[in-house]
Amino acid sequence: MSQLKPRSSWKNHIEDQVAEPLRIYEPKSLDELIEIVKEAEENNSKVKPVGSGHSWSDICKTNGFLIKPDLLNKTLTKDKSILKPNVDKDNLIKVESGITLRKLNDKLDRGGKALINMGGYDGQTIVGATATATHGSGINFGPLSEMIQAIEIVGSHGKLFRIESTIGISDPNLYKQKYPNFTLIQDDDYFEATKVSLGCIGIIYAVIIKIRNAYYLKETRTLKSWNKIKTDLISGDILNKHDHYEILIHPYLRDKDYKCLITIREESPKPNNLPKDKLRRNVLVELFSQMPIITKTLKRLFDKQPTWTEELLEKAIEGLEDDSYINKSFKVYNIGEANHIPSYSSEIALPVADNKYIDGIEHMLTVIERNRKIGELYQTAPIALRFVKGCNSMMAPQYKSDTCMVEIIMIKDAHGGKELYEILENELYKFGGRPHWGQFNYVTKSKIDKYKLYPEMDKWKKVKDHINSNGVFDNFFASKIGVDFLD
């Protein structure tokens, strides 16, 4: 069992969240996961699984045993013999929890398959992404956790569970005969709770996810004004008209309106004889994003010349316009080198019903402008809007609600960035906002209770307390949001 040297620290990918665990493990098998859990229990310690560290929140912090999943990155053989006859076996894949979306995409592509949907980054582990209800775009696509069909998880005392929906993919009798060491639970409450577990229910070893045949996407990016976009949104047709529809908003008025970039992605036939510039994104944008000096220069400008912020953001949005980019689906979903600009973000889910999200967005823009006037506190990046189908996972920000996910991006360490996050989060609670667990947030139990964010939280906690029957998987984050075992 691979244990890093004592007194090692763990940091997320931009090093703004740091944990000082008692031990850091890098297990490479299910048996080693079980051993770590039992050892933690013998030493009255806690166990916290983390993903690739792409979260900006404090969800990964622990002072107990921290488990890095880097070596749990294999594709596993799915046992077709225990699956029900009506299951589409060719469009399922079983993977260990630590496989990254990048590695999974490569594996799927070689077999002529693809993920159904994806966000803009591929460095997350599959379970790190699904456990926090990370999402892509498209009002007919739920968060990535909706791809999950079965979960294999280690609970307290090293007990093994396989969790599926009530009408799950496995034949219960065949499964129990072949895998007596696992307890098969086919129950919607357990399934929906464990899909978005926040890393608090147990240690997910592997998942079976639904996939599809490989496909191509065509992406177009056009400039429009917010008032024109708002008219389209209120009419109610635009979100269903396109497979994927995203908005990037300049957060400050320009010529009495907000300048926006609309990104639309549609399935496309495999391209033939296209010019090279249509098979890649804007070359200059990609090149500049790779240059460390660009980020340092931007931060210096934002801090030393804050009044230039509005002009810089306008140029940034204009530079992203692109009439056509066609490629394999996973290459189009990935926003490219822009992912490597040191930044962090907060994201708030606003309900789409009755266009409440539009009121929330316009109020947010008013608050941003107010803080600019009062203290030259600037939003240092455009604001991204993506639309996601509601789901039944009790702790997903999209629970029972089609949502507009409002991503508020900041250049790392820009003056007043995190302070502005807290202001905006508190304002958007008034519009039914639910913060994304994996992005920067100020969620606490008192706020969850005050704004009734998760009405089925007690049902989720009941599942958690069964799998985590002695509290070994509790942690700082569980205590903060009021779901620790002893609560």
Task: Kindly describe this structure.
By secondary structure, this protein is of the alpha+beta class. The chain has two domains: 75-213, Uridine Diphospho-n-acetylenolpyruvylglucosamine Reductase, domain 3 (2-Layer Sandwich), CATH 3.30.465.10; 217-441, Vanillyl-alcohol Oxidase, Chain A, domain 3, CATH 3.40.462.10. Helices cover 30% and strands 22% of the residues. The chain has helices spanning 30-42, 101-110, 126-130, 172-178, 188-195, 226-235, 238-241, 283-289, 292-304, 309-319, 329-333, 356-375, 417-428, 445-450, 457-467, 476-480; strands spanning 10-11, 18-19, 23-25, 47-49, 65-67, 75-76, 92-96, 113-114, 148-154, 160-164, 182-186, 203-210, 212-213, 216-225, 244-249, 259-268, 322-328, 343-351, 383-388, 403-411, 434-435. The strands form five sheets. The protein has an eight-stranded antiparallel sheet with strand order 17-14-16-15-19-20-18-21, sandwiched between helices. Helix 5 (188-195) crosses helix 15 (457-467) and helix 12 runs antiparallel to helix 13 (417-428). The longest helix has 20 residues, at 356-375. The chain is globular, with a radius of gyration of 22 Å. Mean pLDDT is 90; it is low at 283-294.
